[in-house]
Amino acid sequence: MVAWLGFGILAGATVAGALGTVTSRNVVHAALYLLVTLIAVAGLFLMLYAEFLALVQVLLYGGAIVLVLLFALMLTRLRGGDASLDNPQKPLAALAGLATLALVLGVVLSTQWPGEQPAGGAMGFAVWGGGLFRQWAVPFEVASLVLLVAVIGAVAISRPGGDE
Amino acid sequence: MIPVTAYLVVSGLLFCIGLYGVLARRNAVLILMSIELMLNAVNINLVAFSRYLAPGEFTGLVFAIFVITVAAAEVGLALAIIIRLYRNKATVNVDEIDLLKW
Description:
heterodimer, A: mainly alpha, Four Helix Bundle (Hemerythrin (Met), subunit A), 2 domains, 6 helices, 74% helix, B: mainly alpha, Helix Hairpins, elongated
């Protein structure tokens, strides 16, 4: 019962924040609604006994990514006010979203999923570290390379006066 | 106990809201935020499946870590491109960025 209560609060916060993100008329409010969603998703990770991921979610998404998005919003001031935030194709977009939702929910609800409850017990950081640096060592290094390339690319693209 | 279906429903809702945002928004930064919503929906799915269907293994959790990594790289690059576009065309409205249209 308590689990359902917690799940309901987190799921409600997730969906409400997401709706706020896509419907808000103010870009900074949209970023703050996104923050609500990201923190609530971290709570869902905690309920699934994935506390390391919850930590990463709060640090990386809640901290870094939202901060960078807010910086971008400040650097790109809007002309013509906030009235031009949405496309004229908004009804079609809503239709596409609802159709996809119907498809996904239909499949999810009509399937018999095995497994009644999440594997209990927190997964220790030692287990994580061991797996990440032994079994997944090569993908881990590739991921760090991707990040390096992305950082260098971002610097090269946004460098002022680089119109050669 | 909460069934895995509950997590899948939340994830589906989040994904479709993100899809709506990508299609309906006009500001490039807001489109990027909607993409973040969709990536988070995928992460919920990966973690839920990993914990319910394959307890003891954590392949799904590692995948979620990699999704977060790629999302971070994507945000960094996309924002560099957006700022560059803003400098060149003084707009982040994706309807006006139509140089490649004919």
